Amino acid sequence: MKRSRNRADATPRRSKAKIALAVLGVAVLIYGLTAYVLLPRAWTHYEHQKGLAGLTMVTHTSQGIPGDPINVGLVGTRKDVLCVMHAAGWYPADPITFRSSVEIVGSVVLRRPYDDAPVIDL
Known about the structure:
The chain is mainly alpha-helical. It is built from 3 helices and 2 strands; from the N terminus they run H-E-E-H-H.
């Protein structure tokens, strides 16, 4: 025989669940407004070196979407910079290809280093 529930027993559970859901909804809304509206509008960058004030300080994707901040700037021609990097023992990373992607997977699965692993080209 089934035991019937009293309506009074179910009401407090429903109201607690509704309150919890409302609190979660408000928290998500506050987070979204803060992260995607308020903080981006409040963020400004003041360059302390006047020579860099007009330069781009963030990378951009091919679609023009801002990416990562630029942490290092190199001055010189491409040939000069590559020559200095080679002299210091630095070499370009492998291009992103199917072969390099397979090698990345292998290095992760087998826990071995992939020193020339490709990097994102932002």
